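Everyone, carefully examine this protein record:
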Amino acid sequence: MERDQDRIPAARAPVASPLSRVLPPLGPSCATPAGAPGLRSRLPRARARRSPSLSRSPASRLLRHLPVHDQRRPPPPTTTARRVLFLSGDQRPGRNDFGTEASYIRRALATSFVEVVEMGGVGLPEICAALDRHSPAVLHFAAHRSFDGVFLSEEDGGLCVRQEAFCEQIARARHPPRLAVLSFCDSYPMADTVAVTIPSVISWPCLLDDGQAQPFADQLYRSLASRRSIGESCEDAKAALYRRPPDGPPALHGSPGVQIF
């Protein structure tokens, strides 16, 4: 009897499959029904018990379609643009030619991707409105000046505006320019007041005519477009006046090492 029992082969231990080493044993709550494929029936049940995540919410689906901000891109400009605002007053009192001066500036900046906006015969209320609308980097103002102020245009003809009212219009701008060129006679005293609002101002301490203002403006903006500083550009423009030198050289109020474009 003992030999017969010895001949009976011992029951073999179940061999663990490769998947059983990875997946946990089935518990009573997730037991597989008889005859059903075990692994494929467990996965749907596990998914059904999974709590809803944020990735399935309507807000998350909407966020996936929003553009991703590129941190490498520079922020959009919020102050001044690559633009020169050329304003001119009433040219009849001095019989000036402000249009030719504006054309010199346009040609100097033609290939530099700098926009030139021209407004001729402006009145006093238009100065601040034009600065707010165009947000220029440079304000170039050409006018005829007398002892009382600057001649601007009005509906009934020319008007001599006092220096304080002219400077107040510039000071009210929401985004002041970085450079102002006061292209009229004896603008040096007025430049000290304008420099409180605008960091750099170029003025004339003496009488000025069209034959001097035009070549000065031409060389000034050519140098600025070449990424030279304000001080270097002003010196280049002074050198362009060798044919008709003024009684006094133009003056720069502010930092000479600043680049405009």
